Amino acid sequence: MHTEEITKSSPDFVVEAETVADIAAREALLDRAMGLKRRKKSSEKLRRGRRPSEGLAFVARDSAGAVVGTVRLWDGRLGEGGPAALLLGPLAVDQTMKSGGIGSALMRHAIAEAGRLGHRAILLVGDAPYYARFGFSAEKTGSLAMPGPYERERFLALELVAGALDGTRGALKAAGHKLRAERTRLAA
Fold first, then answer.
1. How do the residues of the chain divide into helix, strand and coil, expressed in percent and rounded to 5?
2. Beta-sheet strands, E only, within 137-185
3. Is the distance from CB of 172 to CB of 145 less than 8 angstroms?
4. Which residues, other chains included, contact 99 with Cβ-Cβ below 8 Å and sequence gap of 6+?
5. DSSP structural state of residue 95
6. What is the Cα–Cα distance from 141 to 19, expressed in whole angstroms?
7. Which of 20, 131, 177, 186 has the highest local Cβ count within 10 Å?
């Protein structure tokens, strides 16, 4: 789904590329939605000190321009020398805007953009019933692992290219560009 389509389908919000000016609002939204313990999760540790994948960080803004939703995708590698894959997350929506279609719009936009940019697979740790509607399942993650503690049944994958995860094994490792030192603290 393209940004123009999202704008037309919902006058209440628009999905667009995240900007540097959105960092503080995004972090505050994530703290409210997930609590401060979010920084201790295995997924967060993979993202720490890194920039999101080029062109794959999005926010939803309400009609006043405030950030009411966020999703990012991060570069990763499967196992030692294995194929590249994206790690999605976190996805969060302001509590006052829940059930308004923002999370779905962010997901559909992020998946479409990842495919358009040539990525082959997306992994995440999340609620299987929620993410199944976007095509995610644990079917392709059996030989894969997250570093650190995680719930295996919540480790999900979506192939953007059929067979992209066939034969993959090993732990997901961080890849992609590192943040400059002064921004590392804000972007974790």
1. 35, 25, 40
2. 144-145, 155-159, 170-174
3. yes
4. none
5. G
6. 32
7. 131
Instruction: Name all domains of the chain by residue range, CATH numbers in brackets.
Output: 3-175 (3.40.630.30)
Q: What is the mean pLDDT of the chain?
A: 87
CA dihedral of 95, 48, 44, 136, whole degrees rounded to 10? 90
What is the amino acid identity at position 129? P
- pLDDT tens for 51-60 read 999 999 999 9
Residues 6+ apart with CB under 8 A from 61: 13, 14, 16, 67, 68
pLDDT digits (tens, 9 = 90+) for 127-137: 999 999 999 99
What region, left, alpha or beta, does residue 84 occupy, with left being phi > 0 and alpha being psi -120 to 50 degrees?
beta
Extract the residue ranges of the chain whose pLDDT is less than 70. 1-11, 40, 42, 181-188
Please list, residue by residue across 18-57, b when 16 or more beta carbons sit within 10 angstroms of its beta carbon and e when fewer do.
Answer: beeebeebbeebbeebbeeebeebbbbebbeebbbbeebb
CA 116 to chain centroid: 16
